[in-house]
Design a protein that fits this description.
It is a single chain. The chain has one domain: Immunoglobulin-like (Sandwich), CATH 2.60.40. Helix content is 0%, strand content 39%. Strands 1, 2, 3, 5, 8 and 9 form a 6-stranded antiparallel beta sheet that branches. Strands 4, 6, 7 and 10 form a 4-stranded antiparallel beta sheet that branches. The termini are close together.
């Protein structure tokens, strides 16, 4: 028995957000969608990306899942660039306005397991159900200052860890 996991991204307006499943990347850009190439909607120095909502989706059979955390490999990938974010229980329409989140955790931000249909809600710290289960979503945003250099920034990696039996 083992779960399988995929990443989902959420875009659109609050209350009618759209899930795009099986994501393999997060592209910070100046548009709220999951398909436009970031090179077609670049972020200019002194501006922010649209906030990005990502969630881990579990499927399969397991006895229990617990101790979920999300983290980023580097929350300051280049001069004048920072990655901010937080685990969230509600969705808000993304924009380029600063989210108000702190630097995204490089050591792990705790998240709960929410439900079989959405990552938005309070959730619980563990689950014993098999089938489909979403973890709480996290919101991330790339913020820049006027001192940011033009061009691509170095990649950062978002990871999730959990205990499974």
């Amino acid at each position: 028995m083992a779960s399988t996991q995929t990443w989902s991204e959420y875009n659109g307006t609050s209350g009618s957000q759209v899930e795009t499943g099986s994501r393999s990347e997060i592209n910070f850009k100046n548009v709220d969608d999951s398909t436009t190439a970031y090179s077609s909607s670049p972020i200019t120095a002194g501006n922010n990306s649209f906030g990005k909502y990502q969630a881990l989706k579990f499927a399969g059979t397991w006895n229990s899942l617990s101790a979920l955390t999300y983290k980023v490999s580097n929350n300051a990938p280049a001069t004048g660039v920072s990655i901010v974010g937080a685990v969230v229980t509600a969705y808000a329409t993304p924009s380029t306005t600063a989210t108000g989140d702190s630097a995204f955790s490089t050591s792990g931000a705790s998240a709960n397991f929410n439900s079989s249909s959405t990552p938005f809600g309070t959730g619980t710290s563990s689950t014993t159900a098999g089938g489909t289960m979403y973890a709480n979503a996290f919101r991330a945003q790339m913020q820049t200052t006027s001192s940011a250099s033009p061009g691509d920034t170095p990649s950062v990696t978002f990871t999730a860890t959990w205990t499974e039996s």
